[in-house]
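Notes continue from the previous slide.

Worked example: a multi-chain complex. Inputs as given:
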Amino acid sequence: MTTTESVRARTNPSIETAHSVVETGLDSDALVTIFGECTVDYEGRAESTLGPGDRHVMCKPDGTVLVHTDEGHQPVNWQPPGCTHEVSVDDALVLRSERSTPEEELLVRFRDVEHVAAFDVTDPEELSLSGTEEDLRERVLDDPELIEPGFTPLSTERETPAGAVDIYGEDANGRSVVVELKRRRVGPDAVGQLARYVEALERDLHDEAEVRGILVAPSVTDRARTLLAERGLEFVSLEP
Amino acid sequence: MAHRALVAYERPGGRYDVHTSRWGGLDLSLAETISPADPYAGEAVDPVPRVVARPFADVLTMVDPARHEALYCVSSEYVVDTYLPLWFGLAHYLGEPAFGRGPDGLVVAVDSPADADAFRKWFRAAKDTVAEAVVGGYLSRADARAVLADAVSQRGTGRELFDPWTNGETNEY
């Protein structure tokens, strides 16, 4: 196995080993590539099936999936940013990519994996975000409907026992709303942060107060998306 | 909220004034923009200190790992050391109330925005894995803490690593 700080790779791995590399890579927001014999089924705005053949599949941390053959610069199948990836094993390595709007599913089944790799990609461009640091908050305050129709900001930096809330406001039905702003892709700990603010504010208000929590970020990991749903918290995708 | 950070400025005599930054935890880039000519990196750091003249051990205990995403220590010569707080809290994975629990985790030194980004992503994956084992009933919370602490120690070999809150004892988290 080739392993450096930023690359994990295996040549001719077992299906189980390939699964481990892919799953760990997806969990850690790595760029994951798989090469081997596979079938590809797409169901969404249309339906298509590719029979068994050698293909190179790339999964990007932003949810993009690209399926390439040995010809052309365009992938033969793809999914756009924002999709969720899942990998599993039955008698093959199964990569499933889904999105809900519009409803689409891409299913890639590898009977045989010849190479698998996960690359921790750090792009300096990603780290030097454009705009001033207050831009995101100002944008939301200037155009609250970016959060949702009827949202009204009431204050910034509202103090709670768990710390200051970025934006505190009300929704169209008069319910209190805590908005947490993040400028990069975030994971479950951002959900934990938001939950703490919501809980602290509910204690600060009266017993029956229902406080909504909305996480605003360019994207969240799959696990974070699941935890948000489990806790009744919400997510709005907004680029900084 | 936001990407909050603490920024500690060393005073003559080795004690620190501690300031806050709303976005300084984003990518550790404040380390490159804080300078003697611009100590607060424009308006990135609140110029009003939260506390003054505290020893470094106190600075560490001011970090809330659930909330602060970076700690900067600015020496009297304006050499800036950067640290990542790593939050060990698992309540949000388990559907339990997250507020009101004591701080728990470790604080590890990082040496660049890229290093911080890589360490942050690694920790997120490690914590996800451990949390999954706790949720599945395969690992107790005390064991989960030990596994996480051990993993961070191994990944952080050769780095400064602080355990500000437990004093060697397992905290509630």
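Summary box: The first helix of chain B runs from residue 30 to 33. The CA atoms of residues 4 and 68 of chain B lie 5 Å apart.
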